[in-house]
Specification:
heterodimer; A: alpha+beta; Rossmann fold; OB fold (Dihydrolipoamide Acetyltransferase, E2P); 2 domains; six-stranded mixed beta sheet; five-stranded antiparallel beta sheet; about 30% strand; globular; B: mainly alpha; MetI-like fold; 12 helices
Chain lengths: ~375, ~270
């Protein structure tokens, strides 16, 4: 399917503007199901035209949060503001939100056309306008020739498109997408991700997506909220989440990372250079350029992504800090990258990734080689949470 | 265990013979020219024409049909509502008791159901007749409907209703536009079951009937006590014919639905390949 390129994206960051008014505001939301706390005193702002992701493992409360916005669940405590209006008690059929369901929830007894027209018919839109709108949507999702089919006469990908068209039909202020691409295979999923982004940009709607797929969240979102056990661990742009996770949980959840537990040995003042700390971890000394609240002897974690670690057969000039010596324990060949898992003498593991820039099949570094892993002082970060 | 094909065939023949020989004899003798039920006197359709002119039998058939349609319809409406309440409204006080109670009339001896309803009508001072039989049949058929519809609702994807609500459709309209069309086969099956149960009920009807509301089973039973006439055979043959046609029609409908589903799936697979 041909990809159409939307207009060039401008920089979009209303969350950095102190005067910006949030479009959706979750205010001290708590949701309990019996004794189980699904969402725990959560506050979150989402801005107009934002593509926002709720990311987390199953049971973290992300779907509950979305269902509260759609009106299928009422918060136990707190309030939800949509354009400044408290929408508590407003039933789902009177909310200006539409949802694309994980199961697609297409009406099996109606044709594709009828499914898409359903929401418009509820608004008593004139017949002619409904037909025109349905045609426009069928064209948008490239399903014109399937208008008269029933949902069970469609493939998974086609059903997903019908579900999308149906949820877009009423031009909702907020489109909610619950694991929208979960049922698609990888290639189709990637294609659809880009189409969703184009669509959101063209239509200028606010999209809220729930997913457990971190790659999906990274690809499509303006901002991501990483959730765990009913609370938000971090809300930030994909790049910030990846490069500056605020906790071990977020660091570990997004992408591949080495996490080394240790203690602060020296802080900036002692080292004489502001914004530097040194961590000791069982004989391994790590220096990091980072402003850090932690003080000497605090237990912290040092985190560094494998692609920011260099691997070499030769010893670096300075082995006193940020150097890990060990044996190549395992190599994961990923095509574009190779991931080396290195084991030190005392049995600790460290991962380094190397881009496969040449087409050599026999790599210079192989199983059993003794190697040095090194990284610069600004490659990793100190995590206190 | 060694099983020979001959043994299987014998068992099958005996089993079916046991089930169907009485019915076949009944049908055969409905075409008997002789007045004696057990002596074959040649082929005749006399008893069928005699049956049509037997006013008492025809009146009873008409009462049974009206009671059946009315009580099956009322029972289906009430039973469907009960099934919805049992599957939908999660955890209301007394839910467990309510869902257990729906099964009680199924296992209750008919004599007790019939007697208790009779006592109720007497206590209320209601004259027994057409309406008391209809109400009694509604009472005991609705729980069969509730169970049939409930089993369909348990596999019903709630997100379909949520999707309709989400698209601006209020709850009652959602029920009629989404839920009901999708559970309709189960509702129809429930109705047919209720109608059949009402059609052949003797015990409950005889407790609650009154003057002018004699149902067919009651009529047949009382006539048999005076001696079996081949007219009874004739009307029973017609009943058997109706039931057979109903069963075959129902199974053909489900078979066609199944075929259509298979065809749809083939279409979907071809759609995916392009």
């Amino acid at each position: 399917m041909a990809k159409t390129l939307g207009p060039v994206k401008r920089k979009f960051s209303p969350w950095t503007d102190p005067n910006a008014v949030p479009f959706i505001r979750f205010e001290n939301i708590t949701k309990r199901f019996g004794d189980f706390v699904a969402v725990d005193n959560l506050t979150l702002d989402i801005y107009e035209k934002e593509f926002f992701s709720l990311l987390g493992p199953s049971g973290c409360g992300k779907t509950t949060l979305m269902r509260m916005l759609a009106g299928f669940e009422e918060p136990t405590e707190g309030r939800i503001l949509l354009q400044g209006q408290d929408i508590r008690g407003v039933p789902p059929y009177r909310r200006p939100t539409n949802m694309m369901f994980q199961s697609y929830a297409l009406f099996p007894h109606m044709t594709v056309e009828k499914n898409i027209a359903f929401g418009l018919e509820q608004d008593n839109m004139p017949k002619g306008e409904i037909t025109a709108r349905v045609q426009e949507l069928l064209k948008l999702v490239k399903l014109e020739q399937f208008a008269k089919r029933k949902p069970n006469q469609l493939s998974g990908g086609q059903r997903q498109r019908v579900a999308l068209a149906r949820s877009l039909a009423k031009r909702p202020k907020v489109l909610l997408l619950d694991e929208p691409l979960g049922a698609l295979d990888k290639k189709l999923r990637e294609e659809t991700q880009f189409e969703l982004m184009d669509l959101q940009h063209t239509l200028g709607m606010t999209f809220l997506i729930v997913t457990h797929d971190q790659e999906e969240a990274m690809t499509v979102s303006d901002r991501i909220a990483v959730m765990d056990k009913g609370i938000i661990m971090q809300v930030a742009t994909p790049a910030e989440i990846y490069e500056a996770p605020n906790s071990r949980y977020v660091a570990d959840f997004i992408g591949d990372i080495n996490i080394i537990e240790g203690k602060i040995a020296e802080t900036a003042s002692a080292l004489g250079a502001p914004g530097t700390v040194r961590i000791e971890s069982e004989g391994l000394s790590i220096a990091v350029d980072q402003e850090c609240q932690a003080v000497k002897d605090d237990h912290v974690a040092f985190a560094v992504r494998p692609e920011k670690v260099r691997i070499s057969l030769d010893a670096p000039a300075d082995t006193s800090a940020n150097a890990f010596y060990g044996e190549v324990w395992d190599i994961g060949y990923l095509g574009d990258f190779s991931l080396f898992i290195v084991r030190s003498e005392d049995g600790r593991f460290f991962r380094a990734a190397q881009a496969n820039v040449s087409r050599l099949v026999d790599r210079p570094i192989t199983f059993g080689d003794m190697v040095w892993l090194t990284w610069s002082r600004d490659a990793g970060l100190v995590l206190t949470r | 265990m060694m099983r020979s094909p001959r043994f299987d065939a014998t068992v099958l023949t005996l089993g079916f013979a046991f089930l169907y020989i009485p019915i076949i004899i009944l049908i055969v003798y409905s075409f008997n020219a002789s007045r004696l039920v057990t002596v074959w006197g040649g082929f005749s359709l006399n008893w069928y024409s005699a049956m049509w002119s037997n006013q008492g039998l025809m009146d009873a058939a008409w009462v049974t049909a009206r009671v059946g349609v009315l009580s099956a319809t009322l029972g289906t409406i009430l039973g469907t509502m009960a099934a919805l309440a049992l599957t939908r409204f999660a955890r209301f006080p007394g839910r467990m008791a309510f869902s257990g109670m729906i099964y009680a009339p199924l296992v209750m001896p008919e004599v007790i159901t019939g007697l208790s309803l009779l006592l109720l009508f007497v206590a209320m001072g209601v004259d027994r007749g057409f309406w008391t039989v209809t109400i009694a049949h509604t009472t005991f058929t609705m729980c069969y409907v509730a169970i049939v519809v409930q089993s369909r609702l348990l596999t019903f994807d709630r997100s379909l209703e949520e999707a309709a609500l989400d698209l601006g459709c209020p709850p009652v309209k959602t029920f009629f536009k989404i839920t009901l069309p999708l559970i309709f086969p189960a509702v129809i099956a429930g109705w047919m079951l209720a109608f059949t149960l009402s059609l052949d009920d003797l015990v409950i009807a005889s407790f609650n009937t009154g003057p002018g509301a004699t149902t067919l089973p009651i009529k047949i039973y009382s006539q048999v006590r005076l001696g079996v006439t081949p007219e009874i055979n004739a009307i029973c043959t017609i009943l058997i014919g109706l039931v057979t046609i109903g069963v075959i029609a129902a199974s053909l409908t489900t078979k066609r639905a199944e075929l259509r589903r298979v065809r749809d799936e083939h279409l979907a697979i071809r759609g995916a390949e392009r």
